[in-house]
Write a structure and sequence with these properties.
The chain is α+β, with helices and mostly antiparallel strands. It has one domain: Aminopeptidase (3-Layer(aba) Sandwich). About 35% of the residues lie in helices and about 35% in strands. Strand 3 and strand 4 form a beta hairpin. It is globular.
């Protein structure tokens, strides 16, 4: 996308990222008929405190954050969370670019791990396309199974 910039976010971006997160996750809430998903009920102070542990990336178009992802290392695993793209900008490669940037920044990771809901076909498609594979599934409720995926990067 023309004019799209990938960069690290800082705590000053927390409010805009939280607004984006809620806009991006509303479709998930509809899909699972659950409007109490953690990304939808997260509060500003919570997301600000996550900046202490996670590296946040943002995709910026002009002055607007239109995508974000967060990641951190736990031992030799990079844990990736909340890949979000503003709904009107989805399916344009922004999520792929954010994921590839995480993998570039955390290039010392022995493995990458993330999760999504079992009904989230577009998410699962994206992650599989990027080389992630399912390693476990966990039932959360009658309407939701969390699918955990991992990627072991090739070392050359």
């Amino acid at each position: 996308m023309e004019g799209l910039v990938m960069q690290r976010a800082d705590v000053a971006d927390a409010e805009e990222i939280l607004i984006l997160q809620k806009a991006a996750f509303i479709k998930q809430a509809e899909m699972y008929n659950n409007y109490r998903l953690p990304p939808l009920i997260q509060e500003l102070e919570d997301i600000k405190s996550e900046f202490k542990k996670y590296t946040f990336l943002k995709a910026v178009q002009g002055e607007r954050i239109i995508g974000s992802v967060r990641a951190c290392m736990e031992e030799d695993t990079c844990l990736i969370g909340r890949l979000i793209v503003y709904p009107s900008f989805q399916n344009r490669g922004i999520g792929t670019m954010l994921m590839l940037e995480v993998e570039r920044i955390f290039d010392n990771a022995v493995r990458f791990e993330l999760f999504t809901g079992h009904k989230s076909a577009r998410n699962l498609h994206l992650y599989r396309k990027l080389g992630y594979s399912v390693f476990k599934s966990q039932k959360v409720s009658d309407n939701l199974n969390m699918v955990f995926l991992e990627k072991i990067p090739a070392r050359g």
